[in-house]
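Q: Entry one of two.
A:
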Amino acid sequence: MRTTKMMVGCVVLAALSGCMGGSDGTTENVETTLQAAKPGGDDNGTELSATAEASAPVCLDSDTATVNIAGLLTTTGAVDSAEITLSIDGGPAAPMGTIEPDDFVHDGRVKNAPYSLDLTLANGTYSIDVCFTQSGSPGREPKTVCAPTVILTIDCTDDPGEADCKKEGVFGDLVGNPVLCSGGGTPHVPVHLRGDFGEIVAIGVAGPNDFVLEDIMNHAGNSCIYQFNWDTRDGFHGGPGSYTFTFVGDNGNHYEFTRDLYCNE
């Protein structure tokens, strides 16, 4: 099983919410609200439901933050593919990827598929709706369900400056959703690092079956945020297990992080 993941950049979100670029790292001055799940069903007694939860956004600068929306799509019926769409403040629904039939984990009649979406948003308060549509078998109407509306407030106006660069650590999917074989299109693991590591950060990944990867992370402007998308298609990882991530900045700073990663069956 794969978890559908997509990074939504400024090009897509500009039409939905006025996305802007940015460059610093803090989770202060941010509020999120999550309501209960909204189930949907049909006359065959099957039910489709979804959940949604927002992570604490990370300010890139005094205007912009990144945030992750993640949850589960649950069905008691067929495990048809499901198209994911996202709407902000009641605006047009933007396509966000597809959950495939083999993404679902079976537990008797109940089947669950995780999803994860990364957004970049400017300061403001947003209502975010994530919806799923299953086309259904021939002769049946498509089924659509929306996760509960997430109310999200981003306030990065109090720029913490250089002090926040000392809050070294890994955040994002690698911490909250450590799925190794995931992502729409090419499977990948997003790696996000915060801290004062200079301009260039070398990343090293060591894992099971003598797997080793070395590369350079992307630096978000002049911020304390560094990003790397680890391509984990077949042959580019060591399989489920414990991985150690080593980060070395060109200013001599060093950070190490260990996480168990798994592939959904």
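Q: Entry two of two.
A:
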Amino acid sequence: MKRDKDKLLYAFHTEPQVKILELLWREGPLTLEDITNALKVDSKKAYEELENLVKRHIVGKRVEAHSYEREVYYPKMSKERRIELCEIALKYSSMPPGLMEIEEEERMRREIRKFARKTHL
């Protein structure tokens, strides 16, 4: 059953994107170099796929400072949540799942602001 649900990712992502997402879910934040080495892919192609995922709000990127600064990519939601949004999108909406997540977060912020106004916080 779980394997069938994993296939939903291919309805919204290319195979290279799914491989990148699977790696990030498994390993956590990684640099472009980490990703290209792990998947044995061209860095330019991996960068293009990552930037597409960033633009769609599925993957985030940040600069981490250890002994040196490095830019890392990380999943903005769990695999389970991503699959859930893909299921919803396929059944009920033409809106991409990444935007559905942003819309849901905004709805929650509005509800919190509304509650805060009512309670004078």
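A: Comment on entry two: DSSP finds six helices and two strands in the chain. The CA atoms of residues 85 and 97 lie 5 Å apart.
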